[in-house]
Amino acid sequence: MTLPTVDVHAHVLLPEIEALVDGAPGLAEARALDARRNGPAALAVNGSMIRERVSKLTDVAARLAAMDAQGVDVQLVSPSPSHYHYWADQDTAEKVYRLANEATAAHCSAAPERLRGLGLVPLQHPDHMVPALDHALEQGLLGVEISSHAPGRELSDAAYEPFWSRAEEAGAVLFLHPFGCTLDERLDRWYLSNTVGQPAENAVALSHLIFSGVLDRHPGLKLIAAHGGGYLPTHIGRSDHAWSTRSDAGAGCAHPPSSYLRRLYFDSLVHDPYVLRELVRAAGADRVLLGSDFPFDMGTEDPVGMVRAARLSEADFDAVRGGNAAALLRKDLSS
After folding, report:
1. Is the peptide bond before 295 cis (omega within 30 degrees of 0)?
2. Where is the Amidohydrolase-related domain (predicted)?
3. pLDDT band at residue 64, thresholds of 50, 70 and 90?
4. Which is deepest, 23, 97, 208, 276, by most CB within 10 Å?
């Protein structure tokens, strides 16, 4: 039996969601905030970048051809984070998550042997997250994608406890993928909103989950952090030091923060072989999964080659390439 190569960080664009929210109260304000945070130069580049990649984002045949070229057998497909729409009221949010779940499931059903899917939940409405997760699972999706925070709420918020409980009970995969950074206009040039903002948001979100005790209360969560977990895994020593020396830092979690890295999963998309080696050292080779951010420009067209460049042992390379994903997803991914 040969384990396939599995990419856990790949996206689908769902134009029907943008048609659904068009003209809804709050959308214009949300887009204005996004524009301020990114800056005009980034928005101009983003538009042309998406147009160049729209076929890979929407057409299954184009996706499969690209996967073949990359040597990827299976993708775990999640909606573009631009579809979160955490500004939406409850009625609109329910329409968004239902449409996202159903449309992602339909996209993956065109090639079920090669595509698995994740849905969305309304992080801004904690009371609706369990029904949204259940809806995603009912569509045959493996779990859901979430951002690093919602307006006015961090992932440590007690209102999310029922969601963590249900996700743990169901064995659902949670994909933590930030969208937007609250450093706002400080990052509005040179695409700092992404290059600095994304890894910063990952680090903040994971720190909330660790220091608040969420991972103590829900040790069975299957949570994958995009972008290698951002800055946290390579700077976790500072967190350990604070936990051991300050009563305020150590009050919420039972163990040193670094120990929780081995309860989480991370994709391999760190753009540096030395950083990837350090991620494998810090989290364990069994906690790192192949990720490409397909097909966006901040991803990689050669995810397998990027892992190979880290010069891991052959056993660790095979684990990252696909073995870990097969174990995590609990699906028959053999080929």
Report:
1. yes
2. 6-330
3. very high
4. 97
Exposure b/e, 214-232, CB count within 10 A at least 16 = b: bbeebeebbbbbbbbbbbb
Average pLDDT of the chain to the nearest whole number: 96
Provide the pLDDT for residue 2: 80
For the whole model, what pTM was predicted?
Answer: 0.96
> Beta partners for 110?
none
Segments making up each domain of the chain, as ranges? 6-329
**Whether pLDDT at 52 is above 60:** yes
- Half-sphere exposure in the Cβ direction for 164 (13 Å, CA): 19
Residue among 11, 331, 34, 19 nearest 182 (CA): 34
Q: What is the pLDDT of residue 330?
A: 73
Amino acid at 78: S
Residues 6+ apart with CB under 8 A from 139: 101, 102, 104, 105, 117, 119
In degrees, rounded to 5, the angle at the alpha carbon of residue 78 between the alpha carbons of residues 128 and 313 is: 125
Low-confidence winner among 52-61, 168-177, 325-334 (lowest mean pLDDT): 325-334
Cα–Cα distance for residue pair 316/313, rounded to 1 Å = 5
Q: Are the beta carbons of 321 and 2 closer than 8 angstroms?
A: no
Q: What is the bridge-based pairing of β-strands 288-289 and 173-176? A: unpaired
The letter for the amino acid at 320 is V
Does pLDDT of 276 surpass 60? yes
Sign of the torsion formed by the C-alpha atoms of 99, 76, 46 and 200? positive
The CATH architecture assigned to 6-329 reads: Alpha-Beta Barrel (3.20)
